[in-house]
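step=predict obj=Phospholipase B1, membrane-associated n=456
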Amino acid sequence: MKTMKDKTVWCLNMILWTSNSEPSKTFNKVEQCTRRDIQCHTEIIQILLKTKQLKLRLILKLWCEIIDVDKKGITYPVLYSGTRNQPHIPEYIPFPCNVKFGRSPSTPNNVHRLRPGDIDVIGSLGDSLVAGSGALEDYAIGTFIEARGVSWCIGGQGDWRQFLTLPNLLKNLRIIILLHQVFNPNLIGYSTGTGEFISTNAKLNIAFPVAATEDAFQQARILVQRIKSNPKINVMKQWKLITIFFGANDICSAQCFNPEQFSPLRYAHHLRRTLDYLKFVLPRTLVNVVPAIDVTVSVRIPRSPICRILHTFYCACLHKGSRPDIEASKMSHLYQQAIEALIYSGRYDKSSDFTVVLQPFSKLFNAPNADPRKAQSIDPTLITYDCFHFSQKGHALGANLLWNNMLEPVGNKTERGLPQVFERLLCPNEKAPYIFTNVNSRRFRLTGRQDGIMAR
């Protein structure tokens, strides 16, 4: 019986032979071997580093990064199944976007001409909904396990076929093998595996459970410290994308007990302070701000007894008063309006190397007229077994919606109608190759192009 080392050596020899005799089939052979026989542990890394063929060494190195092996040789499982996970996309279905529009020919010097593939560094601030709490767990108690690798805006575990996340759409490593093109194979900052925000796996995912918006500024300081202390990051030259998502804990666990400290105005104040700080210390940065979600989404799904018990701890304000659901929904909408007023004020539209864009897809979960009883029920497979956090499928949908918002002009971003994962995935195109900002959205509305060049 072959040992793992025997299988590894055999596979590498087969890949070497294929790369010499039939170069076009090299990637297929790599894929077959890695999926069937090779685990990317320390042993295989040592073997592939001795390979003299530079191209093959790059291929294998990239593949090992795809299936998440860290420096200690720890691997994380990349295949999950179940109704609370996204549908797995088979290999024969190509990546839906033309990578021609993924990365600029040369590094842009204007944030309003920033393509998705121009992003070199990615980070996030937020709470447990960004930390990935319970996303891969089959039990409600699993909410304490933070699956950061599958987080919608910052997870980079596996690839988009297994885990649809914003980083996995940006890096899309698989395409570089066949087409020598990619949005960005060297994206820095995305999380893998599980762990707290202080873990090695967390990278630039600074979110932590139970965080409120008043924690945003301190998280931003930690993020900046990690960015500036990373020798792989050139703060002045590389473009950074940061996603911020707060508000659920403010509304669920604090606002009803201390209305003044956790008012919509204070929510906007904390975010303004955070954004002003990032603008001051981080050049070449685009910030996504996702408004607070309507927290009544957690009671608009079929709930088990354990859900009802846990919910009193996760969202105490939804268990206070005669119709707390209406009050919480109204407060969620007021939070959304407060941050809209800040971002749409133009405060962050005056610089060529920093801007903030509101990505309002969270409003897709709003109850109409702030009355949850009139709202359509939410697909329970989008939520974990504690009925509060996003399942992996929920994270995939969040990534899908965020990506679409980034490629939709301001003022025309999708805010209604909750789709399924992969039902609609937008792509950069010739007329709109850039991430939409307030500034280039105005150009687009006037000319039909983000660059503002009128068609003759």
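step=describe
The first helix runs from residue 4 to 21.
step=end
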